[in-house]
Every structure is written in C-alpha cells, then in structure tokens.
Amino acid sequence: MSESSSPIRLDLSSLREAPQDVLHLLPCEVDHNGSAPVDRYFTPAIRQGSQEKSVSFRGRSLKGQEVIVPQGYVGLVLKEDQRPCTEEEERTVRLKSTFGTLTVWNLERAPSADDGLLLALSWPGIAEAIHAPVSRKEQ
Amino acid sequence: MRRPRRAAPRARGSRTMLGSGRRRPADSHPDQWVLVAPEPVTDLPMKPDGGPLFTRLRNPSTGEAALYLFNSSAQQLFEVKAFHEEYRSWFIGQTVQHDGRLLFATPVDPLFLVLFYLIKAEKEKGKFQPLDQVVVDSEFSSCTMLLQCARVMDSLHHVIEEKEIGNKKFYKYSQEKTLMWLKKKVNQTVKVLKSSNVCVGGRVQSATFISGKQITDIKEDDYVRYAHGLISEYIPEHLSAELSKYLQLPELTSPEADPPLKKRKFSDAPVEAEEDYTKFNSSDLKNKKTTSKMSAAQKALAKVDKTGMKTMSAFFSAKTKARK
Amino acid sequence: MELAEFERDNAGSCRLGSPVPELCRAGPCCLGIDEAGRGPVLGPMVYGVCYCPLAKQEELGALKMADSKTLTEAEREQLFGTLDGARDFVGWALHILSPNLISTSMQQRAKYNLNALSHDTAIGLIQHVLDAGVQVAEVFVDTVGPAEKYQEKLKRHFPELEVTVRPKADSLFPIVSAASICAKVARDRAVKNWTFPEDLGDVRMEYGSGYPNDPKTKEWLAQCLDPVFGYPQFVRFSWSTAQTILESKAVPVRWDDSEDDPAQKGTRSVLSFFARKESSKRQPHRFFHERKLETVTGL
Description:
Chain A is mainly β. Chain A is built from three helices and ten strands, in the order E-E-E-E-H-E-E-E-E-E-E-H-H.
C-alpha cells in the first residue's frame, strides 16, 4: 500500500487555546508551503463592494465571497509536526487552529451558487440525511 | 521601454534561488490539512491520549481503501471527502498552503461498511456466522471497530437474519431485508434532495435558477433515480443493480450512470409518491426468486474461489457477469 | 489639483478636472491630449486633456507651455499654476489609471493591451469633456504608437471633430503641451504621495523615477520583493521588468489560464495520488463530480 495504513490520532488537547484563523481559498496554485505576510500585503488591499469582495494577487484581479461553514460544523486546520519514518509508527495530527468562515476567490468573476465550493457546502446536509438511521415507521 | 509586453514564461529549469531545487515542496507528504467536520468530532476524549481517529477502511461501494474518521468514543463514523478543484491554494492565517483541498468529514451509516462484509461472507460461506468472524479484514484491521458502534448493533436487524444458539448469536445476510432497508434510505434521500433544491434532472439548469423557481418537469422518478445513485455510492455494484430493479427504475444502458449531460431522461410512467410503492410488490416476488437462484450460483462460485487467489473485487465482477 | 478622490482608492481609476470655463461652452474649442507615466514600472498612468477656445489660442501661446518632458518638476508645477491662473479660458480633465488597474487589465483572462487601454481612456476623456458642454471642434493627440490607426479610431468615434494624431504633438501644439503638464503634474504628485495599502515594513521608500532603467527603481524592486505576493499594488506586475524578477525570485504561481507549463503534468499526477484511482471502474455519482468532491484515501 502506498500510504501509511496505521490510524492517525487527532490530538485535540490544544482545542481550547487553538486560535481562530482567517482563511482565503485562492484561484491559483501557489507553489509554496510556509509563511506569507497575508496581513501586510493581502488583507489591507481587500475592497468590500456592494456584491462582492475584490483584491488583486500578483497583478491579477480576484473577486471573492465569504462563506460560513455549514451549521453544526466546525472548520479545523490540522497539522502533523513530524511524520514518523516508518509506516508502523502511529501518526498524530494536532489541531492548529479553527475557523468559522472562509473567503473563496475566483479569477475576475465573482463566485456564484453554481461554483464547486458553494455546491460542495451542501454536501454535509445531504450526507446527514442519507446516513441517518431509518425510522421504523417509514414504509 | 515605452511599450512593455508580457514576458514569455521561462523554462522552469532556468529558475534560480527559490525556483531551483525545490519543485513541489511538500506535496508528496502534505503536513497540513483544512477540514470541515461535525461539531461532535471536537468533543474532548475521556482519556488524555485519546481523540478522534482517522483510519482507512474499505469503501463499501468499490472495496477499495478510503479514509474514515471515528470520533473520540468510537461511536460515530464519518467519511472524509475532499473538495478538490484545480488551481487552488490556501492562505491560512499568515501562511500559504499549496494543497488547496477542503476536506469534509460527514456522517456515514456504519451499517453500509458492515454490510460489505456480510455480503462477502454470504458469497464465500453462505451460512450463519458470528459477527466477529464476518467483520475481519487483514488489510483493514480497524474494521473491527465498526462492531463497537452501538448504532451498528441496533440497526443490524435491517440487513440480516439472526439465529441464537446457546447464548451466542449467528448472522446471515438477507438481501430481501437489505433491499427494504435501502428503499427507506432512498426515500429519506429523496426528501432531502427535494428540500435542498439539488438539481436532479440534468445539468442544464443552474443552481441559481433552480433555487429561484422549482423546475416543474422534474418527475418523482428523477429524484428516486438520483437518490438511488447516491445510495449506490455506499453499496456494491450488484446490490445497486438489485436495488434499481426493486425500485422499478426504468433500465438505463449503463447500470449506475445517470442521464447523460443535457439529455434528460424522464420515465414515461412517473411514480407519484412514496405511498405508491405498494405496487412494486409483484415484482418483489420475482426479485426474490432471482435472489435465491443466484445465491445457489454464488455458493458454487464461492467454492471455486476458496481454492483460488481471486481478490474481492474480481469476485464481485465475476458475480455481476453471472447475474446478467 | 485635488487628488484626494484617487487617493481614497488607489487600486482603481479616477477622473477629475477643473471647472469648465464659460467661454469654452460658448465657442469652438481646441483640445489637446497627452499621457504621463506610460513607461514606468511603478505608479499610475495619467491621461490629461486641456482645452481652450480657438479664439484664445494666442493667449494660450503667451502662457509659454512646453513639452513637460523638457521641464523640471518645479517648472511643471509653476506652469500648472499659470494654467490654473488662466481658468477663465483654459480647462483641463484627467483620468488616472492606477498601477493595479493596469496590471489586472493587461493580465486579464481576455487580455486588454496597453494601447487599447490608452485609446479607450482618451476616448472616454473626450466624451467626458463633450458631455460637460465644451464646444470641442479640433482635437490634437500625442501618441507613441502608429498615429494613422489611432487617428482613424478617434475619427470613427467622433466624426464631427477634426482629429490630429501626431507623434511629439506635445512639443508641437501648445494645447497638447498644456495637457502634458497637467498629466505629468498629477502623475508626479500621485507617485510622491503614494499611500501604500500594504505594510511594507522596513523597506525604504526611495523608488526613484519608476523607470525600469533607474538604478533607484531597480534597487527598490529588488528590496521590496516578497516571495509569495511579489510586489505591492504600486508596481505594474504586467511589465516585463517585474515579471522577470518574479519568475526568477518569487514562488511560482499557476492559474487556470497559465500558458503551457511543463511542471503542470507533474503536479496533477501528485495530486491525483489522493484521488480515486483511475482504474476503478465505478465512477462517482455526478452529485460528487459537480461538487468537485473526491474520495480521500489517506492524510
């Protein structure tokens, strides 16, 4: 098997102290993992229009919309500080931060209800219904 | 430089500094994930070293590995899906994350996963067995956790026949009961599809349009077929075909395919409402017949299989062929 | 000249102008157009128009307007003061295009090149002045591109006007010189008083003229580069000067309309690692396909 098959424990011990993070889903692939001065370059340049947010990134125009995580759900950013060297060792991911909203950005065109992410946010509600126990009364 | 123009992108190999030597930084092994999960997932564990557990289990529809999540008490099971669009990355606080996926953990009925093993056991042995001999998997050892879910034991009766010998319980898969259970699943799925304005008729309408005004020419059948398609994501292929017959869905050329893009396929004899399902009874008998017949064939096949090295999936595809 | 309106949102564009002199509503006028800040990699590009009655051309000549490029900043400010003093027969209007607007237009999915942007801005300004009631009869335009095509384009838009598009018009026609002074003064002031929405930390604000060959500009560009964001919105990302630095020193960024990228194939195969194997015969239901939801096999 190509991926570790041992279970991965989610360490919730930092739940109370976990900070709220601000999340932006960009319409491009940034080939980097690591720090980025979002609050110095990006956040102050965001303009709130009557319909949508706008900003630019690398000289390209982005239009965005803030969305809320579905009711009854929480947004979690999980982090694995050190991946074990062998597949047999148990892995742990910790809760790094939480979020209640995120801003989804599109290139030049405002996100609409037909966009993948906005549609995807309906999945939890549908899943709840599919997977609810069947009631004995229903025939 | 009076008339600047866009420079042609350079060959990646000529990149300097940050560019060279750090292609695809950490994506072979991402170390950070963005997840949307039900609130109970964050219920604190009883033991300090406890906590929710991500584990790989067999996807009951494909038999292949998929990621699931047990809550801290291992009483609730969630499946993990990823919203994955090309050209997406995250800003998370003061960081950038290349992997722009958004993971969703959503509840899954653990009975679907147990059902997979019950069907497998029925095909291999075809007799009453204790559950702990049925739900075992050398490749996915976590599957035994499914039996610790109170919900599994409470709902097991929907899909099995039970015998008690001494004080030990023995179980056997019942397709007849399972289809009845799945029909209820389909019905509750139809309800949520209607209430959440999911576009079931075809992809021609946009969600914005649909949400404004309900399309009138969407038939009950379209909802049932769509719900059948969703439920089929959690059951083996042959059972999906059986369920389709059981629901009296008009045949489609390919078993699990929904109407192709733009060409919406409506049945000419729409079934009005759930109450109408009584009229399926006559065909149920026919189904039963087929079922018992097939289980004989299954047994025969199972015997052959014992000696061989066939994989689960090969076994299932052989089955489907035999059925046709 | 009050740039406050532009400064309120220096990521967009803004049109401003003097009050229209009554004389310009009463009789036929000439109108000059010039631009400032087309070449620099930094700051806004400003389009300026200046107009006065044909009958007052001699008086305009007496104001000794000259091509703004031959003047020092102080001389330009002084001449702008002179124009302001002649407000009873000279009017002006400006259109300031922010560097962000230039970057995002030129790099738009449907590319909007600088010439088209310039022409449309000039046309917009002429229309703006006409709408204000100025009796425009003759138009003089300075251009860097092919004059004939531009002239045809303007004539198509304004068949009733006599249009002259000429390279170096700013040194030939006093009304164009006046327009060039207005534009240049606005550009100078906007660059000088640029308020960065971004917090650039310790970066020194000595960015020179903004021309790519100015050593101060070069040094500033090297200094304020951020590997992820590249530059503040003050920089024109669409300029090859900026693009060259970004390509060599910043993190690669790919868009869905990025030109062919050999690295792309590799990316996809790495990411599809997480996706359902293609060999799997059962395709997910279209519900999931439409929502771009995939089965995950591991963290």
